[in-house]
């Protein structure tokens, strides 16, 4: 059935209680695929990174990628999961052209990691615990490109192209337990969970987790139950949502759609749905198969995975400081609020600021430049802060030049401009562009004398005790020196020459 009329979000929440499940796929950054030695490098010519194993040719046998298992265990440990002593891969049988083996090698009832949790912080500062059901290993499929249709979907297409370079790239699927008790904040919890998980994956160094590149994607499962009841309703599964904002919007839309269907006496069908970025809505995909439809059975070509306890403990020792803990520590060190920290995080500025501080800059100065001028330039160019052609060491050097009085903020911005334009290091740019502040008595004194001589009426007011009028003369000095004067020193010299106490 189609629903055109949604009920309002508040109305939906007045009658129903949302239950969510989030399934996140993370593409690992291993050098080779999960079961063969093919490269995982992005951007290669279609079907140039394939072999008999990942093409499913007769007689080809898979071998497990140890680095993939290692990443899976580290993710499991970071999510506070138990790690299986022994587990197997399973075949998930179905036909689709992007999967040449006719089955996906996955894990079914024996995941490598299970029973964990991830604490996420909401915007009001409250911490919400999301329970993790399991994290299991599997492989990605190839990529279909449907040609000739209007939307890039298969409907209306004249033909399809297949690229198997992605087939066999290791994936970790992380599945939450049903998330209950979030109420009206369910969409916010979904977004915060995926955001925190992405930070965690990046901190572990197992994937770049770039959602816009499909390296991390989220299925949002959602159902409603009448308020005050226990039994879960029928769920819908919105597939492959690929931005944080979309995760939140998809959950919100489904709450409103389910409520509309249920309150008009309709029935929710268990199905997959597609999320549309442009309208913020979802449309029906296919009616969901049950697990038994896939005829899962243990993969006979692979030996079971039995990580020794020693190895698991070795891997536990490699875990980095977790992102939420690190952010709390940095907030304290930098003396900023939770809200300010959130802005730094959203700007992708945490690591650049940390590196700039390590290179010797005070935290407030490092934050000022990365969140100000540099964020503005990155935004203009539509790139990440880390893609700018300036290093944290160079930013620290600019902070030092400002601190020692060689540059003021305006000259520092010009220095940044020069570094970004490839004119050299900060010192080289200052030298080449002649940006050093004018503070020597000779040059500055001459500019001060000229400013006084050129504005006799202002000078007279200052002599008469109107000290604040000195601002106009400082302005004249700055103008004469093209903004390169040390303003504080200029003001001092003006007052001295006019015989007034500052
Ligand atoms: Zn291969």
Automatic annotation (TrEMBL):
Heterotrimer of A, B and C subunits. NCBIfam families: gatB, PRK05477.1-2, PRK05477.1-3, PRK05477.1-4. Its EC number is 6.3.5.-. It comes from Streptomyces albus. Belongs to the GatB/GatE family. GatB subfamily. Allows the formation of correctly charged Asn-tRNA(Asn) or Gln-tRNA(Gln) through the transamidation of misacylated Asp-tRNA(Asn) or Glu-tRNA(Gln) in organisms which lack either or both of asparaginyl-tRNA or glutaminyl-tRNA synthetases. The reaction takes place in the presence of glutamine and ATP through an activated phospho-Asp-tRNA(Asn) or phospho-Glu-tRNA(Gln). Gene3D superfamilies: 1.10.10.410. The lineage of its organism: Bacteria, Bacillati, Actinomycetota, Actinomycetes, Kitasatosporales. It comes from the Bacteria. Pfam families: GatB_N, GatB_Yqey. It catalyses: L-aspartyl-tRNA(Asn) + L-glutamine + ATP + H2O = L-asparaginyl-tRNA(Asn) + L-glutamate + ADP + phosphate + 2 H(+); L-glutamyl-tRNA(Gln) + L-glutamine + ATP + H2O = L-glutaminyl-tRNA(Gln) + L-glutamate + ADP + phosphate + H(+). The gene is gatB. This is Aspartyl/glutamyl-tRNA(Asn/Gln) amidotransferase subunit B.
């Amino acid at each position: 059935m189609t629903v055109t009329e949604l009920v309002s979000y508040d109305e939906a929440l007045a009658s129903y209680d949302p239950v969510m499940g989030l399934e996140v796929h993370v593409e690992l950054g291993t050098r080779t695929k999960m079961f063969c030695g093919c490269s995982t490098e992005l951007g290669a010519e279609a079907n140039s990174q394939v072999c008999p194993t990942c093409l499913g040719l007769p007689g080809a046998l898979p071998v497990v990628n140890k680095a993939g298992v290692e990443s899976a265990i580290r993710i499991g440990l970071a999510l506070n999961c138990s790690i299986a002593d022994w587990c197997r891969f399973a075949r998930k049988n179905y036909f689709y052209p992007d999967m040449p083996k006719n089955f996906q090698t996955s894990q079914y009832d024996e995941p490598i990691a299970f029973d964990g949790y991830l604490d996420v912080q909401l915007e009001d500062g409250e911490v919400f615990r999301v329970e993790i059901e399991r994290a299991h290993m599997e492989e990605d499929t190839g990529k279909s490109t449907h040609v000739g249709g209007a939307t890039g979907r298969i409907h209306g297409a004249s033909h399809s192209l297949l690229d198997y370079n992605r087939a066999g790239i290791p994936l970790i699927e992380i599945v939450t337990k049903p998330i209950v008790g979030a109420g009206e904040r369910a969409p916010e919890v979904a977004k915060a969970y995926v955001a925190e998980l992405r930070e965690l994956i990046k901190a572990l160094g197992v994937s770049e987790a770039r959602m816009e590149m499909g390296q991390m994607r989220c299925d949002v499962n959602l159902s409603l139950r009448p308020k005050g009841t226990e039994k879960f309703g029928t769920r819908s599964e919105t597939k492959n949502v690929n931005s944080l904002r979309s995760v939140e919007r998809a959950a919100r839309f489904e709450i409103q759609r389910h409520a509309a269907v249920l309150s008009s006496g309709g029935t929710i069908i268990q199905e997959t749905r597609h999320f549309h970025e442009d309208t913020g809505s979802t449309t029906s995909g296919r009616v969901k198969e049950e697990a038994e439809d896939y005829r899962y059975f243990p993969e006979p070509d692979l030996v079971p995975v039995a990580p020794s306890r020693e190895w698991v403990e070795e891997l536990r020792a490699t875990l980095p400081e977790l992102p939420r803990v690190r952010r709390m520590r940095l907030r304290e060190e930098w003396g900023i609020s939770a809200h300010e920290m959130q802005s730094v995080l959203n700007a992708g500025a945490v690591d650049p600021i940390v590196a700039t501080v390590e290179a010797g800059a005070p935290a407030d100065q490092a934050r000022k430049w990365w969140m100000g001028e540099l964020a503005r330039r990155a935004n203009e160019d539509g790139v990440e802060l880390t893609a700018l052609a300036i290093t944290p060491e160079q930013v620290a050097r600019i902070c030092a030049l400002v601190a020692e009085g060689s540059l003021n903020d305006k000259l520092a911005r010009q220095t940044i401009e020069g570094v970004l334009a490839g004119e050299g290091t900060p010192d080289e740019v200052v030298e080449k562009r002649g940006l050093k502040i004018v503070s020597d008595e000779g040059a500055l004194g001459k500019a001060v004398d000229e400013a006084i001589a050129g504005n006799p009426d202002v000078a007279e007011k200052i002599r008469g005790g109107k000290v604040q009028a000195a601002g106009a003369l400082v302005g004249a000095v700055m103008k004469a020196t093209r903004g390169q004067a040390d303003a504080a020193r200029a003001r001092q010299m003006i007052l001295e020459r006019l015989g007034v106490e500052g």
